[in-house]
Amino acid sequence: QDTLIVWSEAENYDLALSFQEKAGCDEIWEKICQVQGKDPSVEVTQDLIESEEEHIEEMPETSPLIDLPTCELNKLEEIADLVTSVLSSPIRREKLALALENEGYIKKLLQLFQVCENLENTEGLHHLYEIIRGILFLNKATLFEVMFSDECIMDVVGCLEYDPSLAQPKRHREFLTKTAKFKEVIPITDSELRQKIHQTYRVQYIQDIILPTPSVFEENFLSTLTSFIFFNKVEIVSMLQEDEKFLSEVFAQLTDEATDDDKRCELGMDDLQVRSAATDIFSYLVEFSPSMVREFVMQEAQQSDDDILLINVVIEQMICDTDPELGGAVQLMGLLRTLIDPENMLATANKTEKSEFLNFFYNHCMHVLTAPLLANTAEDKCDKDAGVGSTKSNTICPDNYQTAQLLALILELLTFCVEHHTYHIKNYIMNKDLLRRVLVLMNSKHTFLALCALRFMRRIIGLKDEFYNRYITKGNLFEPVINALLDNGTRYNLLNSAVIELFEFIRVEDIKSLIAHIVENFYNALESIEYVQTFKGLKTKYEQEKDRQNQKLNSVPSILRSNRFRRDARALEEDEEMWFNEDEEEEGEAVVPPVEKSKQEDDFPDSYEKFMETKKAKESEDKENLPKRTSAGGFKFTFSHSASAANGANREGLGELQAALEPTGDLWAQFHLAPYSLCFLNRQGSLVGLVDYPDDEDDDEEEETSPRKRPRLGS
After folding, report:
1. Are 564 and 674 in contact (CB under 8 A)?
2. In what residue span(s) does the PP4R3 EVH1-like domain sit (predicted)?
3. Do 328 and 276 meet the contact criterion of CB atoms below 8 Å apart?
4. Residues 250-267: what's their mean pLDDT?
């Protein structure tokens, strides 16, 4: 069908292959036909099942039902063949179900089961297994009501013990009647409720334990059985809710200090099964409505201490999981990830769930999540003597496998935060110097943990955020990564490939600040690595950028390159710091409340956009007095000669020349080169204007009150 190939397997199981282009569809179709020995020019090579069904459906309702063989021992093989044969046709399944229901056939079959078991008739018992299993696959609720009644259910279980594929029958009835015990924390007096609980447990046992896992063609055969169990559970819960005494008695015992520990344990506490059940309930709530859970925990924060907040309890359960494989911790981590995922957070006109919940999470919960990570990478334990290229391993890395697995889970969640939380996690990483602590784990003997630490750094670098890049270069945070690469030696493994991919990304994306830092600080240690061209490529990029900078510098007149006009490097640092010290709101995003930090920690909020807005506002003020065009087509610049005007002459020159060049799109850059000098470059990097006060030695003795000399315009 153009870009589709469709076919049917079994009676109502349709499959399809979908292709993006017709050419690909035709190619695969030809290969299928070649294997099947059919003509690819024929569009339909399979008999349509629907035609048979439509033909049957058109038959009158009075059409005869399936004739069942008499229920006798010598007919069991024939009955088994009949039941298994109808499973391929929905219409025949329906007719067989009606016949079984009308004639009370199931109870007769179960009577034969008792006879066969008494006679130890193995062949008959095997046939009965196939028959009962086939009847379950008819997927009819009316038949289930009969089979799962108190009168019949244990015989049904008995039939299912005699699987022909097993050498010995199972003992399911023995388990249900002797091993499994019905425990009543609070006595249940309602006989109907007790019967419903027993039935549900046994039917669940049949589905989960006795019946084999259905194949791909049998999955829909037991959908009604699943629904039967579900509605039974709904009915049980409803009956408990309607019982006026039951729930009140449960809570009375929980709150009664006289209740002994054994009794209380049956109600909860640290019991693993109870904890597992509670985790399942919590997961259903999170999957059903993560926003509802978030709303609850934010309301809870207004009334409770951080230690008992629901989110922190979940994190502590994750951290304290006693399972060697951390099965429970993995499940809880997945739930936390769902809760902190901005993709399922709501935004309304009055409030933004994302900003509110993330503010809550980073202020009240993040310190609990990162506590094991910070405890296992404490700075006072770090070995600071190892230099680049050293094979000296850090002894503080956790050697315990379970601890390493826990840290890997925490790092996975933090990596998710880096990808989805932008400025919240950025502030936290920089305030806590978190990346440095994470990279300590590059020394772990557990390679999977070292890879988790590396993946965390890779996600940060992948953002290509200059604030992060500045943090990495100032902190010399490539050193542990390069040490890990060198310590790995010539081994061609996942760690080797992951580290090289990190540097290859930096090279391909041409992240100049990182390239310069790597080449200037680590190239001597890396130049011997020649099995990939990554590091030579970084050196090439570095040299090319250096050449470009030199060419630009050479295009500027020598007067601008002299020390006399060079701006103090400390002044540049002060401007840079101004970007970091402003605490303003990013466009379209909420302001991040400050995370608690030590006095030594620096704050790095995102303020670049606000800084640029302020700068533009100031520049717009300088455009009020536009230069006048002369008859020769040039611009005439006029300046005040008063002392007060002289102090602002640089800014006036900037405003006038900028106003002259911006309409043509030629103004590319402007520099304050000295207290009384301004430089203007066009988009080609050539000097187009200079406003300068001569700084002659003769003027050194001039009195402060005397007016400055008139500035000159150079080009």
Report:
1. yes
2. 1-36
3. yes
4. 74
